Task: structure prediction
Amino acid sequence: MINYIIRRLLAAIPTLLIVALMIFVLIRMVPGNPALVVLGDDATEVEIAAMERKMGLDQPAFVQFFKWIGTALTGDLGDSIYYSQPVVKVISARLEPTLLLVTYAIIIGFVIGVPLGIIAAVHRNRLLDRLCMLISIVGISMPGFWLGLNLVILFSVKTPLLPSVGYTMIREAGLLSSLKYLTLPAFALGLQRSASLARVTRSSMLDVLGDDYIRTARSKGLTNNRVIVVHALKNAMNLIVTQLGISIAHLMGGSVVIENLFNIPGIGQLAFDSIARRDYPTIQGHILFIACVYVFVNLAVDLLYKFFDPRIEYN
Result:
């Protein structure tokens, strides 16, 4: 297994290099000058030119890219133009809210989506199946920001049970207080993910429920719940775990809208603000970090397959 992990990590290097190149090129296609953003609209051409030299923006693009990628390979993503701090430090400071939000949303998605999928599969082509799939389609169709706004109206405005915006760090107010601020955004994200999890769970369970070993388990007199949970669900988990991995990576990179809607100071909001400020190093560092998350989440999902299916061998 160690050899498999090493091969996967080495195979990810070209992918990350391509992502880095695309980030570098696309960001510089966005209109705007970082030096002008820093100095303001009243800056003279001499001041702008001096700031560009200080930032290294006066050098040819290929020189800038190879300098950046060379330092990135050592773990140094450069210094933020706006914050005047290392990008790694800036991202680390914003990581807690996003990680907690993603974890909370994934738990909500799993707790709602997987049981819905199981119920739909067990009652295939019946009323409960159609009802569960209808709920799933509605969940997939609802935009996250629209769902978030409606949750704010229901649970913050009309019924003031939960805060509508903001976030308190765990070290300042404790975990429960932080979760209270993240409940509405986590539901906005989690309900969407539960819809896709429900559909994948139903499909995977239907494939398993028709197998011979399920009929054998039923013939031995095992209860229906034990057959479904212990035997069928365990063997259907590989596809579910795959969908969970996709959801985690998607939420890590796609929480920008929800974090801005609820004013959560996570890495999604950091990316949005950095684009507005033309903070090239921070944008590049953020996207490269998300690309690394995708790589490691996919690797973790592949390794989890063996836990649910011991027949899998890593060559």
